Amino acid sequence: MATQTTASCTGSTLLQPLSEIINLPLDQVNFVACQLFALLMAMWFRIYLHPSKTSPFIRHVVATLLGFYLALFCFGWYSLHFLVQSGLSYGVMIFAGLEHMHKYCFIVTLGYLIVCQITRVYVFDYGMYSADFTGPMMVITQKITSMAFEIHDGLAKKESQLTPNQKYLAISRMPSLLEYLSYNCNFMGILAGPTCSYRDYMAFIEGTCYQARHQENANGKENGKFKQSEPSPKNDVISKLCTCAISLAVYLSLYKLLPVEYSIDDYFVKSTPLYLQVIYLYLAMLALRPKYYFVWTLADAINNAAGFGFNGYNKDGSPRWDLISNLRILDIEFATSFKLFLDNWNIQTALWLKRVCYERCPVNPTAATFLLSAMWHGVYPGYYLTFVTGIGMTMAARAVRHNIRPYFLVSDSHKLVYDVITWACTQVAISYTVVPFVLLAVGSSLKFYSSWYFFLHLLCLLVVLALPVKSKRRQAKEQQENQQKDSQSDPSTDSNCNQKDKTS
Prior knowledge:
Layout: H1 16-22, H2 26-48, H3 56-75, H4 80-95, H5 101-124, H6 134-156, H7 164-169, H8 177-185, H9 198-206, H10 234-254, H11 266-271, H12 274-305, H13 329-333, H14 338-344, H15 347-358, H16 365-377, H17 381-403, H18 412-439, H19 442-451, H20 455-466, H21 472-489, H22 495-503
Helix pairs in contact: 2-3, 2-12, 3-8, 4-5, 4-6, 4-8, 5-6, 6-15, 10-12, 12-18, 15-16, 16-17, 17-18, 17-20, 18-19
C-alpha cells in the first residue's frame, strides 16, 4: 500500500522505509513527522528566541525559514505555490487603491486557490484524499483575505463604521514583506494552521500577547485579574498531546472497520433495517472525526509550545490557551443543535467565514457563507452537496429551536428530554449532511441520499415552510424600530437612558 502512494507524494522520500513498515501513505508520514519536528522547534523557539532575548526581526526570519523548510519537505517544489499566491496578493495590497483593495485581494487569492484545486483534482490525481499542497493554501487564503479586510477597516473606514471586534482587528499600517510572509508561512501553522488574526500574531512575535486583550465572548473581567507576566503552556501542551495520542489510536483502530462507503453498498442497503443503517452511519462518522481531532489538536499544541495561543485566565486563575483552538471535542460530541456542532467544529474557519462574509454580506448571508465555505474547501461535487444540504439543515434547526424549544423550558425534566432528542437528531443530521463530503463524487452521494429517499431534505423543507422564523437581522431591525416608536410616543423618556441602551 505504501509503495503505491510514493508516486503521488510530491515531497521528500526520506521516510519511505518507515512508510512501508507502518503501512501508511508517505505523504501522511511526512506530514506527521514534520508536525512533530515543528513541536520540537516550537519549544526551542519559545526558550531561545524569546522576545526578551532577541528582536522581532530575528523571530520573523527564523519562523519563516523553518516554515519554508517544512513545506519543501512535505510538498517539494509544489510549495512554491505558497509564495506565488502570497506574492500576487501582496502586490494587490500594495498597488490597488485602498477603497477596493480588499475585494481584489479576495478574488485573486481565492481564485488562485481554486485554480490549483482544479488542477490537482481533474488533471493530476482525482480522488486523492490525503495531505496535498492545496491544504496549506487554504489556510494561507484565510490569512490573506482576513488581513486584506483588516487593512481596509484600519485605513479606509471610520471607527464609527466598525463593530467592536473589527476595531480591535483593524490594521493601521501596511505590513512589511517579511511580516507578511512570517504571518502566512511560519512553521507553527504552515502545514495545518490554524488561522489567526494578524494582530494576535504580531503580539506573539513582539512579546505583548500576555497583556489584557479584547475578546469577542469575554465578559471584560477575566483578563488582567491575575497578575502573571508569562504563564507556562506546559500543562496545556501535555494535555493536548495526550488527546492527540488517543484520537490517533481510535482513528487507526476504527476507520477501516467502519468505512462510510459501506453505507451505500447494495447488499447492506437492501438487507439492513433502517434503524441499523442510521446507527451504522453515526458510528462511521464517529470513527472518522478523530482524524481531524488529531490534526487540529496537534497544530494547536505546536502553537502553544511556541508561546502562541494565550487567551487570558479562567476564574480559578489558571491560564487559558485556546485563542486559536480549532475545536472543542466534548461540545461537538454532545451538541444539541446543528449550530452548536458547527460553532465548535473548525472554529477558526467559522470565525473567518463570519468576519469576511457573514458580517459583510448584505443579501442572504447564511447562503453566501455556505457557498464560500464550499468554494474554499475545493472543487469536489460532494462538497457542494454537503453545504447546500447544510443550508436547509441550519434553517430547519433554527426554526425548530425558535418555535418548539420554549415549550420544553418549563422544567428541568422537560429540558432534559428536549436535549436528548435534539442530540440524537443533531448527530443523525450531521452524519447525513456530510456523507457527500466524504464520498466526494456526485453518483455515490446521490446514491446514498436516494437510499434514504431524501428524507431529511424533504423534512427540512417541510419544517421551514411550517415553522417560519425571522432572520436575526430582521429581528434586530424591528426591535430598533419598536424602540424608536416607544421613544417617540413617550417624550418624557430620559434621553440619557436611551443613549445608554443604544451604547450597550
